[in-house]
From TrEMBL:
Organism this protein belongs to: Actinacidiphila oryziradicis
Lineage summary: Bacteria, Bacillati, Actinomycetota, Actinomycetes, Kitasatosporales
Bilayer-spanning residue ranges: 35-58, 70-95
Keyword terms, alphabetized: Membrane, Transmembrane, Transmembrane helix
Name of this chain's protein: Uncharacterized protein
Superkingdom: Bacteria
Residue ranges, annotated region (Disordered): 143-165
Length: 165
């Protein structure tokens, strides 16, 4: 009942949003990004563990000292590479997040299209004016229950009007 009162404004908002969604955003770049850096940031720590664990196990048992040293060297090089790629991937993530920053929450949907933003604002204004306030006024104008001495609650989950769709 409440939302239906602002249905024309909501329909206008949906049409404006759909029109805005069909147009490509201004200054959009290709969605295809690099996969080498994130892939290396994930695989390099695994590779370092693959080399370091057997290298330290062989060193602990004293078997094949030259092979265990070669595994340890390769593992520490892979660990250094992992640290550098994780730092580079983190920096890339922060730069991307800063570039694609949005407005704080609570400001409504972010629209690059002015028509969609105006339609959303019109719907937000029509919703309380045409839906919520008339509903509350109707609830307050209902008769008081006999013999209770207190006014009825304006909104009750047990009223039949609440459950109607």
């Amino acid at each position: 009942m409440i939302v239906i009162a602002a249905a024309t404004e909501y329909d206008a908002y949906l049409r404006a949003r759909e029109t805005a969604a069909k147009r490509p955003p201004v200054g959009s770049t290709s969605a295809r990004g690099g996969v080498l850096l994130p892939g290396q940031a994930v695989l390099a720590p695994v590779l370092s563990a693959v080399f370091l664990l057997p290298g330290y196990a062989l060193r602990l048992h004293g078997a094949h000292p030259t092979f265990s040293e070669a595994l340890l060297t390769a593992g520490w090089i892979a660990a250094g590479t992992a640290a550098v790629t994780i730092l580079a991937a983190g920096t890339s993530l922060l730069v991307t997040a800063a570039r694609n920053r949005t407005a704080p929450l609570g400001d409504g949907p972010i629209h690059d299209d002015q028509a969609a933003a105006r339609a959303w604002e019109a719907w937000q204004q029509a919703l309380p004016e045409h839906g919520i306030l008339p509903f509350l006024h109707r609830q307050l104008q209902q008769e008081q229950p006999a013999g209770t001495g207190r006014p009825p609650l304006p909104l009750s989950l047990h009223q039949p009007a609440f459950h109607r769709a």
